[in-house]
Specification:
about 90 residues, alpha+beta, 3-stranded antiparallel beta sheet
């Protein structure tokens, strides 16, 4: 898991999503899990897109498969984590 940010009070952790997180957080009801971005299917253009939560910006690139979008999301977030500090 790539750690991106922990809130000052420690109540929120922002990181790249991993199914292991679900296993950990499902045991504790007071942990809030939030993805750094959303991967969604654009019905109009019939492609997958990425929307970054910290800016609500939708990436101009599009992807033919969800797997491609997830791979690119991870690459972007791991290479430039500075963009997530607001």
């Amino acid at each position: 898991m790539t750690l991106i940010r922990i809130s000052p009070d420690g109540s929120e952790v922002l990181h790249l999503y991993d199914d292991k997180v679900v296993q950990i957080t499902s045991k504790t009801s007071d942990i809030k899990v939030t993805r750094a971005s959303d991967i969604f299917f654009d019905n109009k253009d019939k492609v997958w897109r990425i929307k970054f939560r910290h800016t609500n910006a939708i990436l101009a690139l599009s992807f033919e498969t969800r797997a491609e979008a997830l791979e690119y999301e991870q690459l972007v977030l791991e290479q430039d984590m500075r963009c997530l500090f607001v």
